[in-house]
Amino acid sequence: MQLYLTANISVHFNNSGGIPMIIDSAKLNGPCSCGRSHEMITKEAIIEPGCLKKLDFYTDKYGITGKRAVIYDENTYHAKNILHPAADQEIILDPTNLHANEIAVGKVMEQLDGDIDYLVAIGSGTIHDTTRYCANDRGIPFISCPTAASVDGFCSTVSAMTWKGYKKTMPGVAPVFVLADIDIIKEAPLYLALSGAGDIFGKYTALADWNIGHALTGEYLCPVIESMTRDAVDAVRSCCTGLKEQDEHAFEQLTYGLILSGLAMQLMGNSRPASGSEHHISHLIEMQPAAFPFHSDALHGEKVGVGTILISQACHKIAETEDISPYVHPYSMLPEKELEELYGPSLYPSIVEENKKDCMEGVTPEMLINAWPEIRKIIATIPRPEELTALYEEIGAKKSMEDIDVPFAYLPQLLRFSPSARNRLTMMRVCWMLNLPEDKA
């Protein structure tokens, strides 16, 4: 057995090929070199073939007792190699048009027995976000058992929901532990794993946005959390070509990367290390604003992966301008009329509320001009769009707007309006201070 250390996480590798990942919460909890104190709720994540069989062992280990409800959807319930742990209650949701929203939450809560002591999520992202929301609402713990390597939110402390049409983070609870059974995960449809890879590659632009925020305003940035997130990307990048060959190691590394990214968010207390401009593009598409006469059924990670290419292309083009001083103007939010026309009457009030305390308030033209040399260096760390496109082609991932059923003609609106979907400092939001000539934008 080998021991691998990354960002204070101990990871034990079985010689048999399984990867039990041991999280040393004693090292992760408490004071950090960044000057803050972090909290890790998730005690342990196990990435190993057959580990779902050990559910009772780990509930005993962490003192989780009482009545158990296990939540699936029908696809997961009948998945290849699936195991059905003993349960006091099973809730099996219809997968037809199933999303993490108030409807799914309502279906779980109306069925959930009143004396259940903890929840077990067996599924992918939608089941996890729905379960963690319900667990938080009931004030009980939950356990994560991912069945596909499709998203990085398994260890999140919040629920990524589309609530009454608006994409937002809702209250949730992090899992006590994670059992990621590779026997099940590797048999899930390939497009789910490729969606997970897209979610991970979005960290290239998300980390750049975080560093740009730090360079421009002195926004808090923890090097340990940033390193964890980069390790997650490196782990997936190193092996992703093996996914289409059903290489078990590739699925282990992808699952590891997704869980590691989720743990980084858990330490941060929010999604800043893992979600930036590329996610805001995905959010805008998912919200289906009134001015978008199209619908995309693409998975979250597929949209994030394509969004990463779009943001990379936009950032590298902007960074070609060495001196931006002639093109900078004072910051202001987009005009209310434009936002209302785009979002429509049902979504516009939520956008106004989201942006009430503007994250760019106080940023002056002088600040941007002074930070520009550093911002250009940060943008240079983002893989260029042609590099990302070639990688996606190699692994078979969706790589264009057409691939996710979004007409290319809507690219300008995506780039201009997507920052308004989330009140977070990103390079695309910084662009609201720039009036570059068309050949430079």
Detailed description of the structure:
The protein is of the alpha/beta class and 441 residues long. The protein is built from 18 helices and 13 strands. β7, α3 and β8 form a beta-alpha-beta unit. The radius of gyration is 21 Å and the shape is globular. The chain starts with a strand and ends in an 11-residue tail after the last helix. The N terminus is likely disordered.
Query: Mean pLDDT, nearest integer?
Result: 92
Beta content comes to 5-15%
Structural Rg: 21 Å
Total beta strand runs: 13
Low-confidence stretches: 1-7, 12-18
Q: How many H/I helices?
A: 18
Please state how the strands of the largest beta sheet are arranged side by side. Answer: 1-2-3-6-13
Helix share, percent: 40-55%
Q: Gap between N and C termini, in Å?
A: 52 Å
- From the spread of the alpha carbons, the general shape counts as globular
Look at the helices and sheets and give the structural class.
alpha/beta
Major beta sheet summary: 5 strands, mixed
Which labels suit this protein?
18 helices, alpha/beta, disordered N terminus, 14% strand
Compact summary:
Helices cover 43% and strands 14% of the residues. It is α/β, with parallel strands linked by helices and 441 residues long. The chain has a five-stranded mixed beta sheet. It has a four-stranded parallel beta sheet with strand order 8-7-9-10. Strands 4-5 form a two-stranded antiparallel sheet.
